Amino acid sequence: MSMADAKAMDTEVSWYLRLHRALLPDYNRKAAAYWYTGVLLGGAVLVYCLHSLAARPERTWIEVALGVAIAMLAALFPVQIPRSKNSLAAGEIFIFLLLLLHGPEAAALASAGEATLGAWRISKRWSSRIASPAMAVLAMFASGSLLQALRGALDSLQLTNGGLLIVATMVFALCYFVCNTLLITTVHRLKRSEPLQLKDLVGVFGWVGIIYTGSAAVAALLYLAFRESGLGVVLAVVPIIGLLMMTLHYFFRQQEANEAVRRTASEAAAREAEAATRHMEALQHIAFHDSLTGLPNRHRFNECLAEAIGRSKADLARRFAVLFIDFDRFKLINDSLGHSAGDEFLVQAAQRIRHHVRPTDVVARLGGDEFGILAENLEHENLAVTLAERLMRAIQNPFVVGGTDVTVTASIGITFGSTGYNAPDEALRDADIAMYKAKENGKARYAIFDIGLHAEIAQRLRLEGDLRNAIANGDLSVVYQPLFDLGSGGLIGFEALARWHHPQFGTMRPEVFIPIAEESGLIISLTDLMLQRACRQLRDWQLRHPRFADLRMHVNISAKDVGHDALVPRVTRVLRQTRLQPRHLTLELTENILMEHIRNSLPTLAKLQALGIGLSVDDFGTGYSSLSHLSALPIDTLKVDRSFVRDLQSGSKEAKVVRAIVHLGMSLDKAVVAEGIENAAQLAQLREMGCTRGQGFHLGYPQEAKAVRALLARIVADSDETAVEATFEHTAALL
Ligand code: C2E
Ligand code: MG
Ligand code: MG
Q1: Which of 43, 187, 622, 660 has the maximal Cβ count within 10 Å?
Q2: Atom 7, ligand 1: which residue's CA is nearest?
Q3: What is the pLDDT of residue 458?
């Protein structure tokens, strides 16, 4: 149907239907029927009343008009009862007075007037502006007629006592209240298709009932006074009632104002309390959460862990596990992509971990790149292992950080509540120890804590203390392994290797104590000690005979040294103190260290090279150097890892690797040293491949300075005529 059609149809609709829709849009059939009946009946009664009043004498007319006017005037100034929708109007008194004076017709007229004004004031709907006076007329006419009949009965019984009249008027007022209320509430109930209920009457009684009966009593008193003393008394009472109403009005207004102040104050207090709660919650969140990832922090994690320990003690079946996660190459992300990329990675990692645990598991950031998981209610401890495996797989998927794909691994330490913890830090410490074990075992794996690890840690801590003392007391010793030119057989120099003779455990291998020194930070003073001793020693040997003046010294440095800002000044100071030429010193650092710290270490290495100090990549072939890096790095020597030399049968894979490294060295203009040469066959093969330098037990063991000095002396003595160059077979025989 088009809009025009609809409009045409609308104009066809009769005027009364349109009026009906405008007046009673939300009325159903029953309610509408009731409304029309009420309004028509009310209208009819009003016409009847006017008609019957018209027949009365003029004096009645004047009194009725006066009464109606006062009632309507009073309706304009109602006194609102606090905390109620009802208001108090003095009009009722005069309406009731009119009822007593001139019967229900006059009172109905006054009610109509008062209700019209009242409805006009409180409602915008025409339905109620029309129905209110109609219902008031009906209620007043019905109950007024009842009172009139009652009075007639009393009169005929000659019961004209004033008290009885007052009581009768009050009964009438109640009757009027009931009629009026029922007439009005019936509309509402019909509209909602609900039956009338007793509470419709009882609920609104209170104030309204009291006003009605009170007004009735006053009206009856006024009537009695009027009968005694005429209209003057009534008119005199008008200002008194006005005064009373005004007093009430101001009293109520004051009450309302107080109420408003109280309400505002209590609302303000409620708002303040709410703000304080929000503030407290925010503070709590800050205190217990990590600001970067939004995860609970170590503090909160400890709290949860303490609760879990308590629960598992109360109920042994409640198993829990603590997982300690540490990323294996987080430092690399920070160093190579910057700190904001590091933060971005941590946020993503946190989300990924959270995603792969159960909703009930607690995931916390413990600090740096360390995360903790508390998994409670484990049916079986194996589930914690499954969780660790799942997390490792999830973490191994590349992260996109700052637009770059980043692949990382994590090491996870696991400990179980069944170990019998009393405090959260015990559980966390053990999970941490297990995580270190995982790292030690090669990273990218998990390790489960067992009591044996405790002993290991205790031993490690003890060794760390002993090593600190040994370095401070200069108790470390240095052994020197000769390096030879494989072509000429000439002695090129030595590699200085650290040795530690522990008073209780005997000679300790560098593989054991160097990692301890690196982790504890002792490596810086260890390197300084080695540099001092080795450089001084070499200078001493160089000065022994002009033939040794160009011997070199190789000293191993570690990752921490490369990252140490003061490496260049440290090295130059040693060179100055020992008067060694920079070109006679070579620093060795392993391929892995070099590649992990490539970004940070480049400037330092460049400075060292500029000073003339040699740089050698140790254990070459085991790491991940790329060709582009190799050619750009300021290094002059590649040291082939001894694992390749060990398996150097011709045709082996290792042989191919060594040959490739030799060629690489040649094309990049770097010297290649083969280490770990243990027999003549290996030596012959390396020579055949074109490897220019070598080191190994077959050529010379690492030995103490005293032994080397004796060796140097013999070389000088034995080969006064021969060149130093022809000595490695010679020295091998001597060693
Ligand atoms: P590296 O720098 O690769 O040193 C060579 C290692 O190979 C030495 O072990 C040496 O004794 C051993 N070696 C030499 N020739 C042969 C051979 O023919 N066969 C076999 N099987 N081994 C041979 P060492 O002294 O035990 O040192 C081990 C590692 O400890 C060194 O490897 C080096 O990375 C580190 N290290 C030693 N001293 C220091 C130091 O003062 N500072 C630092 N940072 N690391 C050091
Ligand atoms: Mg070395
Ligand atoms: Mg090596």
Answers
A1: 187
A2: 676
A3: 81
